[in-house]
Amino acid sequence: QYILAIETSCDETAVAIVKNETELITNVVASQIESHKRFGGVVPEIASRHHIEQITITLEEALEDAGMTLDDMDAITVTEGPGLVGALLVGVNAAKSIAFAKQKPLVGVHHIAGHIYANRLEKEFEFPLLSLVVSGGHTELVLMREHGSFEIIGETRDDAAGEAYDKVARTLKLPYPGGPEIDRLAQEGEETIDFPRAWLEEASYDFSFSGLKSAVINRLHKAKQRGEYLKPEDVAASFQASVVDVLSTKAFLAAEAYGVKQIIVAGGVAANKGLRAALKEKFQDSKAELLIPPLELCTDNAAMIAAAGAVAYNQGHRAEWGLNANPGLDLELFGSRKK
Ligand code: ATP
Ligand code: MG
Ligand code: FE
Q: How confident is the model at residue 34 (pLDDT cuts 50, 70, 90)?
């Protein structure tokens, strides 16, 4: 069984093919980072236009790389949401056109289900499992008791982890996207500043990063006023220490409380060296097995959409020809929706 997937929710145009749910055949990603860099973030209108230019080229490249044609596909899957509406629309319309022209089943996929399922391209899932989702727009602890079912047991009350990285990076005048830049600096610095950790209420699995973001901004401001020099490496290391401490501790506590067999990390921030190292240490003696995707499957790609889409397809999910981009698509509702 061959599943084609299209992903255009943000600033990468991506097409992938997965065989029998878990075997990656091809994974083509056309990134627009260079076009957005000078604006310090993703400009939605520019993103949409790039997707329109890139979608056909990316699709052809994926098919060529796989040595396959659209006729070989069993289903066409596409990111339906969440994301930027104009960007999503390009992928959704491309997928609908292909599915209609080739009379193939069409399946809409939740972007975060995709980030989670990126892990299944590496290792088979064992339930119950807990996923720590840390991306540009989401920070959640998601409990899965079976394939395609998602229960959010904790989530951010303000900024997402990736968003906090990008905002702090901007204050440090680092180029976009800031996450990898801060990660790189943090490796060279030391935790010299004691930034706050938002633990929230006892036993809460929710997160909050806006207070930390403000603390960093205020500290930099104060240093400037006093003419004090703070090494950017140390600011990065101190900020990262706070984020990583909260993420890894809450993931560990939740994994223990729910007695999960696996803890899997998902989303762009899963590429973070500090987070990867902290989780490895935390879960070293835990019964839960830790899965972290390879770097290329952490940030946006279509392989993860194919992996989640294949499961949705095999569970009976089908989209109608009226499928629309849904920028606010809910993960739990997506999981409970079957035909
Ligand atoms: P979402 O998936 O929530 O819709 P998104 O698709 O924009 O958001 P991803 O592509 O999953 O997000 O991840 C991008 C985010 O990951 C950015 O905020 C980026 O700064 C962050 N990121 C990437 N690499 C690293 C890293 N090494 N350390 C920290 N953050 C990182
Ligand atoms: Mg991106
Ligand atoms: Fe993403």
A: confident
Per 3-state DSSP, the chain is made up of helix, strand and coil in percentages (nearest 5) of 50, 20, 35
Q: Is the pLDDT of residue 338 over 80?
A: no
**What pLDDT is recorded for position 38?**
86
282-308 pLDDT, tens digit each: 999 999 999 999 999 999 999 999 999
List the end-to-end C-alpha distance of the chain, in Å, as a whole number: 20
265 assigned binding-site residue: no
Question: Strand 139-144 to strand 129-134: parallel, antiparallel, or no bridges (unpaired)?
Answer: antiparallel
Residue 207 has pLDDT above 90, yes or no: yes
3-state secondary structure of 125: coil
- CA distances from residue 18 to 33, 75, 308 in whole angstroms, order as listed: 25, 11, 10
Q: Is 276 in the pocket of ligand 1 (CB under 6 A)?
A: no
On whether 204 is known to bind a ligand per the annotation, the reply is: no
Query: What is the rounded distance in angstroms from the CA atom of residue 274 to the CA atom of residue 261?
Result: 23
Q: Is the CB of 180 under 6 A from ligand 1?
A: yes
Task: Show the beta-strand stretches assigned E in 103-185.
Answer: 106-110, 129-134, 139-144, 151-155
ipTM over 0.95: yes
**Is-contact 224 171, C-beta < 8 A?**
no
The answer to whether residue 339 scores a pLDDT higher than 70 is no
d(CA 335, CA 146): 10
